[in-house]
Amino acid sequence: MSIIEVQVPQLSESVAEGTLASWKKKIGEAVARDEILIDIETDKVVLEVPSPAAGVLVEIIKADGETVVSGELIARIDTEAKAGVAAPAAEAPKAAAVAAPAPAAAAPAGTASPSARKILDEKGVAAADVAGSGRGGRVTKEDAVAAAPKSGPVAAPAAAKVSLPTPPVTVALGDRTEQRDGAAQAVR
Fold this sequence. Notes:
Radius of gyration: 26 Å
Shape: elongated
Number of strands: 10
Number of helices: 5
Distance between the termini: 78 Å
Low-confidence stretches: 85-107, 154-159
Oligomer: single chain
CATH architecture of the largest domain: Beta Barrel
Structural class: alpha+beta
Strand content: 25-35%
Strand order of the largest sheet: 1-8-6-3
Helix content: 10-25%
Number of domains: 2
C-alpha cells in the first residue's frame, strides 16, 4: 500500500484561509493524476486542487464547507488500490464518518466566505439570517455588503462615530485670499 497525501496548495500571501467547496470524488473512486479533486474558495479566487498521483481516494480528512489553511492535509490516495475496493478495516469507520456528513454539508445554512463572515460580524448579522447567492447557498461578500445591519445595541455605536462637517475657513495670504473646506493650511 502506497499512500499519497493531498494537501491544500500554497495560498497567496494576503490570503490566510480558504473554504472547501465540494468534493468531485467519493471515497473508493479512482482518480487520475492531475484530475481535479476539490475546489477551494478564498476571498480572491477559487483554486482547483488536482490529484498528485493516480490511484483510489481512500480517505477524506476535511469535509465540504470546512475552513483550511495552506499545507493542511485534506485527503489520502492509495496509488496501488483498485477502484471499488473497500477501504481497509481500520480506515473504514473513519472514512464513513467523514463521508456521511458531506451531503448535508453541501449547502449548510449560514455558511459564509471568510470576507463575508468579517463583514457580517462588523454589522452584527448572523450568516444564517442572510440568503446566500453563492454555490450551495453560500453567503458571498456581495450578500454580506447588501445585508441590513441588526438594529439595536450593535448599530448604536456606529451612529456615535458620526463627525459634524467643519465650516469653510477663509485664510488671508498676502494680497490673495484662499478659501478651503476644513482647517486652515499655510501655503508655502
